[in-house]
Fold each of these.
Amino acid sequence: MRHCIEYWNSFWFPETTVFNLAMCRIIVVGIRLFVLMPHLGNELNLLQGGAGFTEPQLLIVSLLAIIPEDIFLTPTAFLVMYWVTSVAGATTLIGLATRTSAFVFALGNWILVAHIYSYAEEHHVETLLCIFLMLLAFSPSGDRLSIDALIRRRHQHSLNEKPQSMERVSTAAWPLKLIQILFAYTYFSTGLGKIVYGGLTWINGYTLQQYILRSALSEERALGIWLAQQHTLCILLSIGTILFELLFPVVLFFSRIMPYILIAGICFHAGIYMTMGADFFEHILLYVVFIDFESWAPWFEKVKASIIGRPGYQVKS
């Protein structure tokens, strides 16, 4: 049992830097905030459409049990919530009151997404992203590359205290590892489901042709219409899809092949978007949790040294 506990702790809570987590915070929150945020206009149109919920999500049902409908489900409430969420995203991005900001930003995203999904528009592509945003609130993602870290250092300097190093902690790796495992589970279960429920019919080419043609026609994707007519190519793509999804968990154990599988994943999702119109941008964005930014530290240090070394910059002792 002791060895099991030691292995568990060494896997989830190794002594590591906060740099990787901080970089993921900046990249994911920044792109979510400025590119992939739910559209406010869409939220308001659904509210004012009068169609009513088709499949109300658990979060929305729970909130309605606390907040009266005539207060919560109003354009004013959603307008305020949207902008509070956006401001929280900005403060999370720069690392100001990071844990609180990240919690508000994640919760706001959860509510906005759950509201859209309550009108029978449920998709799974945002699930992992929403989970990661909430994990930031329970992790030290703001201990590096943040306003919080700058304020802490200045406070310690004003008190003539020795700065406490945040270079290596035991709580910075588990959010990244959890998302990696959830990624592996998502892909593997999808591939396994194709085999269990579809069997050999899923890789006969005709099944993929049908999926591609139906989506390509509805989304007006000329490339998809062409691809749906290439039976042999669809057989190869079907086999490649199964292999990619079933083999993705390998990245958890063999880091050397990780770049190749991630590149394959980017091509996989980009191909789906170009031929079928289904975007998995959130999945592609979250691939950053697999990147070891710490290995780029020497490059960052060179850039920092070149900036500091320019004329006009002074280094205070």
Amino acid sequence: MFHPLPLYVGLRYARARAHRYFVSFITWVSLAGVSVGVAALIVVLSVMNGFESELRDRLLAATAPLRVTAPPGVGLDLPRLQAELAEALPGIRAEQHAELQVLALRQPEQQPLLLKSADVLTQGELQELLVQGNLDSLVDGEGLIIGALVAQHLGVLPGDSLTLLVPTVTAGGLPEPRLWEFTVAGIFEAGIQDHDANLAYASLDVLTVLGAGRSSGVGLNLRLEDALAAPAAAALLRERLAPHWPQLKVTDWTEDHASYFRAIRIEKTMMALILLLIVAVAAFNIVAMLVMVVTDKRTDIAILRTFGAAPGAVAAVFVTQGLIIGWLGVAAGVALGVLVASNVGPILEVLYRFAGISIFDADVYYITEVPSELHRTDLLLVAGSALVVTALATIFPALKASGVSPAEALRYD
């Protein structure tokens, strides 16, 4: 049977080194280093994907994917706008939206709030966010739902009264703050500090009475079947509405919360680079191991050259040996990483039972479990990067082997 010489000899070298204990030890260390580095990279990226998905779900639970807003003081022909939106994006669901900056007062504390119309959220979504109280008074237009951190700062509970200072403008253009008394209908907790510490919800009718539209923006909130398609839908709406509605602003949820996702992307990139250094260290071990093998096999190299093997074929022998070790380590690391990333919750549960340590205490954190989400693109990127790094590690030893002089090797060996 025909066997390519570099592949045949490289496989023999990779298998038959039991009598060279130190070289064999370095080989196993290299293989283990590559495996651990690849597995760690896969697990960390999967956990960060899980946190990103968890954050996205919590953000979308308290806001709509798309928002079309008019500047303060600009009236809207809502039926015409809704028809235009339905024509641009069939199947879209639109709800009227308003928001207003107010100041919540409860002696001796005060807290600035962004008051939004609760009509943009379904009853199910509001009920899911609600941790105390009920929605009856909110539906009747008499109550507010405030964030958990707002309630904690102001010291209020469902059923307590809360005063809102609303900035308005007189007919002469002078500022005229007004005070309105409300009842706290409920307290919500989105698990995001910006929401829990700054948001409050009231009915759309209440916001209209308070002056939303004259001192703040009004518009429509748009619901999509796929929230991840919001950026593309926003770009389409901007192009469609620009000729007839130049004053309107189209915003998607990724723009509203860009800082969160930018921070996650930066963290993922930095963690990937740091953990890739583990693979790089293992690759240096492969270099050291192959250099020792080249030194040990100088006589074999000389014999191969004497029988007519070209320098490139000799280099390919050691490239093959290094690739076998590196790629076996990558394969083992991918398998281990997928196994751990798919079972992060049970693994941490076992560690908690034995060590008695809880990573996310339910009394402190809103998220009580470590989420994990394995993406195929991350898996391919990690495996491909590790394969490239281990392949590059074989170049120097291979060049060193191809430069061995047959005459000198046989003379001194």
